[in-house]
Amino acid sequence: MTTLSHHLRATMSLGLPLIGGMLAQVAITLTDTVMMGWYGVEELAAVALGGSFFHVVLILGMGFGLAVMPMVAAAAANDDRRQVRRVTRMGLWIGLIFSALVLPAFWFSGAILLALGQAGTVAANTQDYLRIAGWGIAPAVLMTVIRSHLSALDHARIVLWATLAGAALNAGLNWVLIFGNLGAPELGIAGAAIASVGTHLLITAVLALHAALHRDLRQDTLFARFWRPDWEAMGQVFRLGWPIALTLLSESGLFMATMVMMGWLGALPLAAHGIALQICATTFMVHIGLSQAATVRAGRAWGKGDRAGLRLAAFAALILSGGMVALTIAGFVLIPEALVGLFVDPNDPLRPEIIALGVSLLLVAAFFQLADAGQVMALGLLRGTQDTTVPMVYAVLAYWGLGLPAAWVIGFPLGFGGPGIWAGLVVGLAVAAALMMTRFWRGPARGTAPAALA
Length: 454
Description:
It is built from 16 helices and no strands. The protein is mainly alpha-helical. It has one domain (4-453). α4 (109-115) packs antiparallel against α5, α6 runs antiparallel to α7 and α6 runs parallel beside α8.
C-alpha cells in the first residue's frame, strides 16, 4: 500500500510543472497589467476590465478542456489509448465550435459594458482591446484541451516550458508595441491585445507539436483524420464538461460582477481592484496547479477503484495547498504596500491613492485565501471522480445566491465600498468550499459513486 509521503512526492512531481505553467500563464496578464499601469491609469482600467471579460468567456470554454483531464487519466490508467485519443480529439472539436460562437461577444463588447453601467470612455477603450484580443480565444481554448491531455499523461513539463516561452514573447511584444520601441508604432491598448493573441498562438502550437510528435505520444495519433466526428465521445466530453464550464463561469462571473461594481465607484477604484485581483490571481495559480494535479491523481485512483489511494491523494493535495495559503496570508498582511506598488508608476500623482485602495483590498483578500483554496481543491478532487453536476449547483447557489448579494449589500447600502465588495467574495467562496469538501469526503472518499449522491 502506498503511503502519504509517496502521494506527497507524486503530487509535487506532477503539480510543480502545472503550477509553473499556471504562473507563467498568469504572467501574461500580469505583464499586460504592469505595463499598462506604467502607460496610463485609464488604459490600465480598460485592459483590466477587458482581461476580466476575456477570462469570463475563456473560462466557459475551458470547462470542456478540463473535462478531458480526468477522462484521459482514467483511460490511461486502464491502458485504453483509443479512448485517450477519442475524448481529446472531441474536446478539440467542442473548443473550435465554442470559439466560433463567442466571437461576436468580443466585437460588440462596448455595448455590453455600457449596459452594465461602465463609463463611456472605459467601455470604448475596452472594446478596442477586445476586438483584437478576442481572436485569441480559439488558441486559448484549444490550449486548455491539449494541456489537459498532456498533463493527464505525465507530460506536464512541456506545458511549463511552452508557457514560459509564451510569457517571454508577450513581455517583449508588449514592450515593443505598447510603447512603440524598436521603431514600432506606439499602439497602447491595441499593442497589448496583439501581443496576447500572438502569445496564445505560440503556446498552442508548441503543445500541439509535442502531442503529435513526442515518441511516447505518437501512438495516440491525436490529429490523424481529425475531420472525422466521433459523436459518442463528443457526448461524453460535453456531458462531463458543461457542468465544469458553468461552475467556472459562476466563480469567474462573480469576480467579473465585482469588477463591474468597482467600476460604479470610478476609474481609480477599478484600477486598484484590477491590481489587487491580479496579485490574488498570481498566488491562486499555485492552488489551480495543485488542483489539476489532484484531478489527475484522483482520476487514476478512481479509474482503478483504489479508494484508499484516492483518500491519500486528497490528503496530499490539501496539505500542499494549505502550506501555500499560510505563505500567501503572511505576504498580504505584512507587505501589501510593496506588492501593490509594483503596478503603479512611481511618478504617477495618483500613486498614493491607488496603493491605499489596493492595500485595503489585499487585507480583505487575506481572509478568503483559505476558502478560495478549499473550493478549488475540492472541485479538482470531485472532477477526478467525474462528479461535476452537483458541484455546479453548489457553485451557483454559493457564488450568486449568497456571494454576489453580500458584495452589493456590504459594499453599497452598508457603505464599505471596495473592501465591502470583496467581503462578499469571502461569503460566496467559504460556503462553496464547505459544501464541496463535505460532498467529496462523504461521497467519493468513502467509495460512493456520484450518481448515488445526486
